[in-house]
């Protein structure tokens, strides 16, 4: 609950400052990962956030959500064998100007439709 409150406060602050916002949510986990489905805000032990931040910048710029897949293996985190070996799908979406509703529907069917539309059936085209 504390994390959700922090996210809501950050969204209110961004709205007051007139900044665009995006929200990243873990929508699928296969294998082992730091966070489970539904987690947002802090979505990993820190290894995914830098890339998710860059994707979020693009999402805020063009207003289109992105489904991003991360294959976490032994060498993913700094080549030191840290982290959890699994696959994590992150839904990164713009937040409406009023900061109270997400712009897009994040239901499982909506995410899956978006994934199919992006050719998300396999690793091709993904980082």
Automatic annotation (TrEMBL):
Q: Which residues form the XdhC- CoxI domain?
A: 16-71
Region of interest called Disordered, as start-end residue ranges on this chain: 96-127
Q: Which domain of life is it from?
A: Bacteria
Organism of this sequence: Thermoflavimicrobium dichotomicum
| Full protein name | XdhC and CoxI family protein
């Amino acid at each position: 609950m504390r994390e959700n409150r922090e996210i809501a406060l950050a969204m209110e602050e961004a709205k007051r400052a007139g900044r665009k916002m995006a929200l990243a949510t873990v929508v699928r986990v296969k294998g082992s990962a730091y966070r489970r489905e539904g987690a947002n805000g802090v979505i990993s032990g820190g290894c995914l956030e830098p890339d998710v931040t860059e994707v979020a910048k693009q999402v805020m710029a063009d207003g289109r959500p992105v489904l991003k897949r991360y294959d976490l293996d032994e060498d993913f985190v700094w080549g030191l064998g840290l982290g959890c070996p699994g696959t994590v799908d992150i839904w990164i979406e713009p937040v409406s100007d009023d900061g109270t509703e997400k712009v897009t529907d994040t239901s499982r069917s909506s995410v899956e439709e978006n994934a199919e539309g992006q050719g998300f059936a396999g690793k091709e085209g993904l980082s």
